[in-house]
Design brief:
The complex is a heterodimer of chains A (378) and B (489). With 378 residues, chain A is an alpha/beta fold. Chain A is built from nine helices and 16 strands. In chain A, the strands form three sheets. In chain A, strands 1, 4, 5, 8, 9, 10, 11, 12, 13, 14, 15 and 16 form a twelve-stranded mixed beta sheet that branches. Chain A has a two-stranded antiparallel ribbon with strand order 2-3. Helix content of chain B is 37%, strand content 21%. With 489 residues, chain B is an alpha/beta fold. The chains are: A alpha/beta (378), B alpha/beta (489). Chain A: This is Acyl-protein synthetase LuxE domain-containing protein.
């Protein structure tokens, strides 16, 4: 009687929420799982999103066409610009619980409508024992760790996706947030890191790289060294935004941060990739490669032909993410990257992604107007 | 990926500024412009020294130079540009390919346009006649009913130039010189070569000529405060380009300065039932291929009445023909990725990809397609064809953002001209002629020369009877006699 209204646990949920370490399985095993999960998601969106179904129909692709892992590239994908101009839903509108936007440095922002299931799956990934994080968070719990968030708290993050995602780290350990309104309380953050290093085994500083850079400058400016040793960890994400001109390459960033915070090992600095249209975090391993979990199919396309590229070739980064229920998360992204399948130098098998750079936006459209203004009928 | 992605350094091009007709080479600081992944352009930094030299230029330099001398000098410059042996022309063609990614054929065409525009002396005089009322008005007092009117230059005009259409730079400069203004050509990061090539060709002909000394070419980034100050202290601002660029220039323009905006516009075509499919399609192909649709007069959408298939077949052939005549610009990796994304967006919105050539593409928009705002047009020779039962349906897609409506057959226009005008389009032309601005025509609703002059009127004395009166104008007497209504008819 009690189980009548309970849906059976789906395969995707058992993988996302379960404690199975897929990284212990072979590349082929992960690929088979990926095929099953992404194909199931494709079928769901074909059945539930009329706009997407119509698009796939015009592209001549049905669920039956997806029989092997190699077929996954046939799943019709959407440019992120679609989400800047229209609502694309695979669930009834009343099931949407939050509408997220990109933090966006300019122009129109994407709006992604997420339902409870889609959000829960994201939350399900945010646990210290998730294989998503490798062993970066091993031993972290709420009694021995604290998180210094160079961003707003979850309640203050509003609908800005990146801030929301980073604030979800509070599920793993107590978190203090240091952006209040539009102010970053750098001095308070530095003081609290010093205090926490005395009281806790592990202290995590999380935030976009430009704010971590500001944090380091505050430490240097204070004149008193901060001894991070093997207790302080830095977790970055979100890119340099409108401070692109200050961007440091990864090697330089690690050097500056490692020296400023006296870290025992640069491996204590990790980066995560995410964008508002993607429902999964891709977390960096010890070898600075971002691991792609088996519910995401990542590959690159030739920018000239948009045809899929072989493993390892730099191209436009594309994703198909099976965890998104409320919208078809089959994306042509805005980054240049390489995607590799095999055993990473860190020893973990699977798919990894190496970000090359952000695609530059359109240039010099000049006086040709590309967006029609709203027509006013006489 | 492309070569520069693989680590090969982009070619570098070092260019000077021109200040008052003289080369200005910075002793130290430099600015580096990266034009996509094609090349790096190194320019002097826009420093206080550059600005002070520009501020020191005589704003009335051309005021007393007769128009015929200005036009004669421009004509001599143009004759150089008409020669395929002219070294500046050859360098310009090479730089358009290197910096803007133009094909050789398209770059040659641009150089031809410079030659034609600079040597159009008769057209220049016509332009003065039409836009200012008299070709003598900048040289002398001209009778204008009960007044004598003399037009003078506004002074120093700053041109915020576009990076997409080199001939805009030529037109902008010619208009300013024809109205005897001195010019500061603020180049766009996308095209630092056209303005410099023009200025250098003036110097090469006669460095001491007042027309040469009336031209300054510089670049500063958008957030440069010295550049903003220069705009604020200009007597006129002519702003071309994107909505953001034009808006920013407007905000910086002084309250009493003239402002001439050539902001973002789009253009479309109407193909009526009686049109010859071959001729109409070739016209669309021309109007969509020139400048790879980056100009405001570039046709983006075509509304086709009647049988669609013959037109589509001809359009496909026409676009391919133009890929040979004027090969498309070489795009960077990122530009290509952007283009592919926008075309995919068209497909998601319901557009049906009919055909692709090496760059051009045709999408057909069924009635249920959602190709309306805010969907972005992909440009780069992407033509959106909208079948309609009657061309009247096209009117729903016309607003003040439309610059040019191109039509075929020509007689169709009589039926739609008034309605298009009410919807605030700027030009109506025959298909295939979008880039030809006829003498007497308007530009974005304006006669631009009028924005670049100030008129002084020297009005008739009291002894000259005002129109409507049959006796001298003695206002005291009129007031005393309370006869105002009796004497003025």
């Amino acid at each position: 009687m009690f189980t009548q209204n309970l849906a059976p646990v789906s395969l995707i949920d058992s993988v996302v929420f379960g404690d199975h370490d897929w990284l212990e399985n072979s590349v082929e095993w992960q690929a088979d799982l990926r095929l099953e999960l992404v194909r199931e998601a494709f079928a769901h969106h074909l059945a539930s999103c009329p706009q997407y179904a119509s698009f796939a129909d015009r592209k001549g692709v049905t669920a039956e066409h997806i029989q092997t892992v190699d077929d996954l590239v046939r799943i019709p994908q959407l440019p992120t610009s679609v989400f800047k101009r229209q609502r694309v839903l695979s669930v009834p509108p009343d099931e949407i619980v939050m509408n997220f936007t990109s933090s966006g440095t300019s122009g129109t922002k994407s709006v992604i409508h997420r339902d409870g299931v889609t959000l829960h799956r994201l939350c399900g990934m945010m646990r210290s024992d998730s294989p998503l994080f490798g062993n970066y968070l091993d031993g972290m719990d709420e009694t021995n760790s604290t998180i210094i968030n160079l961003g707003p708290s979850r309640s203050d993050s509003g609908n800005v996706w990146f801030s929301y995602v980073m604030s979800l780290l509070e599920q793993m350990a107590p978190m203090q947030s240091y952006v209040v309104g539009s102010d970053l309380l750098l001095k308070e953050a530095v003081d609290d890191v010093r205090r926490s290093l005395v009281e806790m085994d592990k202290v995590f500083v999380v935030g976009p790289p430009f704010l971590v850079s500001d944090f380091c400058q505050e430490v240097i400016g204070a004149g008193a060294p901060l001894e991070g040793g093997d207790s302080l960890f830095v977790f970055t994400g979100g890119g340099w935004k409108n401070r692109e001109s200050e961007r440091m390459d990864r090697h330089e960033f690690n050097k500056v941060v490692g020296e400023a915070l006296s870290l025992a090992d640069p491996l204590q600095i990790r980066d995560v990739f995410n964008q508002v249209e993607l429902n999964t975090l891709l977390v960096e391993c010890e070898h600075h490669r971002k691991h792609v979990p088996p519910w995401v199919h990542a590959f690159t396309r030739d920018p000239v032909t948009f045809e899929p590229l072989p493993d390892g070739e730099a191209g436009v980064l594309c994703f198909s993410d099976a965890t998104a229920k409320s919208y078809p998360c089959f994306l042509v992204g805005d980054d240049v990257a390489r995607v590799l399948s095999g055993v990473c130098d860190c020893g973990r098998p699977g798919v990894t992604m190496e970000l090359v750079r952000r695609l530059r936006g359109s240039s010099h459209a000049g006086c040709a107007e590309t967006i029609r203004s709203t027509v006013q009928a006489d | 990926m492309n070569q520069s992605e693989e680590g090969k350094p982009a070619p570098r091009l070092k260019l000077p500024f021109i200040v008052g007709g003289k080369r200005y080479v910075a002793p130290g600081e430099q600015q580096v412009l990266r034009t996509e992944d094609r090349c790096e352009v190194i320019l002097p930094a826009f420093t206080a020294d550059v600005k002070s030299k520009i501020d020191g230029l005589d704003r009335n330099l051309l005021r007393d130079v007769p128009i015929q001398d200005i036009i004669a000098f421009l004509n001599r410059v143009g004759r150089n540009w008409r020669s395929s042996e002219y070294s500046r022309r050859r360098l310009f063609i090479a730089q358009l390919q290197m910096v803007l990614g133009y094909s050789e054929e398209a770059a040659e065409h641009e150089a031809d346009w410079i030659g034609v525009l600079f040597t159009s002396h008769a057209r220049m005089l016509d332009l003065l006649d039409i836009e200012l009322g008299s070709r003598f008005i900048l040289d002398e007092w001209v009778r204008s009913d009960e007044a004598m009117v003399h037009a003078y230059p506004v002074g120093r005009v700053t041109h915020v130039l576009p990076g997409n259409v080199p001939s805009s730079t030529v037109i902008s400069l010619l208009r300013a010189l024809l109205t005897k203004n001195i010019s500061v050509l603020k180049v766009a990061s996308g095209d630092p070569v056209t303005a410099l090539s023009l200025a250098l060709s003036l110097i090469e002909l006669d460095a001491s000529h007042p027309v040469t000394r009336a031209v300054t070419v510089a670049y500063w980034p958008e957030d440069n405060e010295l550049g903003a100050e220069l705009i604020r202290s200009s007597d006129g601002v002519v702003a071309w380009g994107s909505a953001i660029a034009v808006q920013r220039a407007k905000e910086r323009c002084g309250a009493e300065a003239s402002f001439t905006p050539f902001g973002p516009k789009r253009s479309l075509a109407l193909v009526g039932r009686g049109a010859d499919p071959h001729k109409a399609a070739l016209g669309v192909a021309h109007d969509a291929s020139l400048y790879d649709q980056a100009a405001c007069f570039s046709v983006q959408e075509v509304f086709v009445e009647g049988d669609l298939e013959p037109f589509l077949t001809e359009l496909d052939a026409g676009l391919r023909r133009y890929e040979s005549l004027l090969p498309p610009r070489k795009l960077s990796t990122d530009e290509l990725a952007y283009l592919n994304g926008r075309r995919l967006d068209q497909e998601f919105a319901g557009g049906k990809l009919y055909a692709t050539a090496s760059r051009a593409a045709i999408f057909v928009a069924p009635a249920d397609a959602q190709l309306d705002p805010p969907l972005e047009a992909p440009l780069q020779r992407t033509v959106i064809v909208r079948p309609v039962k009657d061309l009247v349906e096209a009117l729903a897609h016309v607003d003040e953002g439309v610059q040019t409506v191109a039509v075929a057959p020509w007689d169709v226009i009589a039926e739609h001209r008034d309605e298009l005008a009410k919807r605030r389009v700027s030009r109506i032309v025959e298909l295939g002629l979008n880039n030809v601005f006829r003498i007497g025509g308007t530009h974005d609703g304006m006669r631009p020369l009028q924005r670049l002059v100030r008129y002084v009127s020297h009005e008739a004395p009291a002894r000259e009877f005002p129109k409507g009166m049959v006796l001298p104008l003695d206002q005291t007497k009129i007031l005393e006699n309370k006869s105002f209504q009796d004497v003025v008819f």
